Amino acid sequence: MAPPPFPSLKPKANLPLTTILPSQIYVVDDFLSPSELKAVRSWTDGVMMEEPKKPGKGEAERTARRGALDSPDIAAVLLRMLEPYLPQLSPKYTAAPALSPNIRVYHYPTGTYFRSHYDSPTLDARTRRLSCWTVLVYLSSDVKGGGTSFYTGTYDIGGGAKRKGGAKKGKSDGSDTGGGGGKVTVEPKAGRLLFHWHGMSGGGCLRHEGDEVISGDKWVLRTDVLA
């Protein structure tokens, strides 16, 4: 069954892009208004969700539910919202602005998590372009825990070379703690937009994880920027 129509969203003027870690992590707060948050969160109830599966060999454990749909229309809505921030990102974004139509919804009930891993550049079948920035929009208020934590110094090294700790792209690092370097956590503030780099240059993706949700229900909307 198809989900209901995606809500209408309005681009916001003068919202600052905040640098959390240069060339890797950026956020925009209040990307969605309270009414838009409510509408998008209601929309997620119509998305077919999959229960978590036992991870394969070398894969990171994810205990959250996940839904995915192919929607160029939703990608276009989100692109209108976030396009003003793309020129401000580093590594410098010079491509024709585009988002992946692979729209994902994540649901993290209390006690769930996503162990440390790397995101992978993924080829878009329509445009033959690789993804380069992960885009997360946090949809829930009153969540304790559930941050997205990054381990500095654990670079993916350009998408093909050996990673620190021997982790493979898109796979678990074999550790429950991430390891290596310092730790930077982005809290899942309702309405917040997170960009984090996973492209083929600039050191590649940082090892990161979805922290355990201590209380509440964390919902996240995801797409990717195409290089």
General description of the model:
This protein starts with 17 loop residues before the first strand and ends with a strand. The chain contains two helices and 13 strands. The strands form three sheets. A seven-stranded antiparallel sheet has the order 1-2-10-6-13-4-3. A four-stranded antiparallel sheet has the order 5-11-8-9, with no helix packed on it. Strands 7-12 form a two-stranded antiparallel ribbon. The protein has one domain (19-48, 59-157, 180-224): Jelly Rolls. It has 227 residues and is mainly beta. It has helices at 34-44, 72-82, and strands at 18-21, 25-28, 65-70, 102-108, 114-117, 131-138, 144-145, 148-155, 183-186, 193-197, 206-210, 213-215, 218-226. Residues 97-227 form the Fe2OG dioxygenase domain.
Keywords summarizing the entry:
227 residues, mainly beta, Jelly Rolls, four-stranded antiparallel beta sheet, 30% strand, globular
Mean pLDDT: 90
Total tally of structural domains: 1
Helix content: under 10%
Task: Determine the N-to-C terminus distance.
Answer: 32 Å
How do the strands line up in the largest sheet?
1-2-10-6-13-4-3
CATH topology: Jelly Rolls
CATH class: Mainly Beta
Q: Please, what is the CATH homologous superfamily?
A: q2cbj1_9rhob like domain
**What is the percentage of strand-forming residues?**
25-35%
Apparent shape: globular
The helix/strand order is EEHEHEEEEEEEEEE
Largest sheet: 7 strands, antiparallel
CATH second-level architecture: Sandwich
Structural class: mainly beta
Number of strands: 13
**Could you tell me the radius of gyration in angstroms?**
16 Å
Given the structure, what is the number of helices?
Answer: 2
- The stretches of 5 or more residues where confidence is low (pLDDT under 50) are 158-179
Protein name: Fe2OG dioxygenase domain-containing protein
GO molecular function: iron ion binding; L-ascorbic acid binding; procollagen-proline 4-dioxygenase activity
Pfam families: 2OG-FeII_Oxy_3
GO cellular component, one term: endoplasmic reticulum
